[in-house]
Amino acid sequence: GAVVSQHPSWVICKSGTSVKIECRSLDFQATTMFWYRQFPKQSLMLMATSNEGSKATYEQGVEKDKFLINHASLTLSTLTVTSAHPEDSSFYICSAIGTGAGGNQPQHFGDGTRLSIL
Amino acid sequence: QKEVEQDPGPLSVPEGAIVSLNCTYSNSAFQYFMWYRQYSRKGPELLMYTYSSGNKEDGRFTAQVDKSSKYISLFIRDSQPSDSATYLCAMSVDSNYQLIWGAGTKLIIKP
Q1: Residue of A43, A58, A116 best to disrupt the B interface, most CBs of B under 10 A
Q2: B82 — phi, psi (to 5°)?
Q3: What is the structure's pLDDT at B94?
Q4: pLDDT tens, residue by residue, A69-102
Q5: In degrees, to the nearest 5, what angle opens at C-alpha A58 toward C-alphas A76 and A100?
Q6: Chain A residues lying within 8 Å of B34, measured CB to CB
Q7: Which of B10, B21, B27, B81 is spaced 20 to 30 A from B103 at the CA atom?
Q8: A3 vs A21: CA distance, rounded Å
C-alpha cells in the first residue's frame, strides 16, 4: 500500500517551455502533498506544501509564479515549471501523506522526475 | 550547525556484515523519526517510521531512537549488494510538519 506515482519520469525540453509534472496517490487519499527538488549528491529541498482544495505554501526563495502547484483532488497534485530555463534542470520529487487510521502517517514518495532544459 | 547531522560516507562493507547508520540532531522537539532508502535516480523509499524513543524491528532492519542523546540509528543485518543505496534520515516535530533531512549516507555492499 501507500503507492505514489509520478509522471513523467524524465523530460527534456527547450528553454522557454512550460513543463507539467503529475503526482498521484494510487491507493490512498492524500490530504497533503509535498514537492521537493534534489540536486546531485544532495539531500531533498522542500519547495512547497499543498493541501487539497487550497493554495500551496511555498518555502522561502521558491518563486510561486515560476513553480505553479495545483492540488485539485485528494489523489492528484501537479507542478508546472513555467518558462523553464537551464537552471531549472533538476530532479523533482513529490510525496504524499494519507488520512490513515491512527492519525499520524509518514510521507510516501514518488519516483521523481528528471527535468533537463536545453 | 545543521539541525540534523549525517555522515555522507561512502560507507563500504562486505556482504553479510552488519551495517550501522547514524544521525544526530539538535532540536529536542523532534518526535517522528524516519529512515528512507534512495537508489540512484529514484525517489526515497520509506524503511522505518518511529515515534519518540525506543527500538523498532522490521526484517533485517532495526531502528533505534535515543532522545536523551539526540541520536538515531539504523542497523542492517546480513547486508546484501542490493542494499547499496543512499540512506537518508529524516525527522519532524509533527507528522504533518516539514521533514528535516540528513545529508544521506551512501552505502556500498561489496560482494
Answers
A1: A43
A2: -70, -10
A3: 81
A4: 998 888 999 999 999 999 999 999 999 988 755 5
A5: 45
A6: 106-107
A7: B81
A8: 17
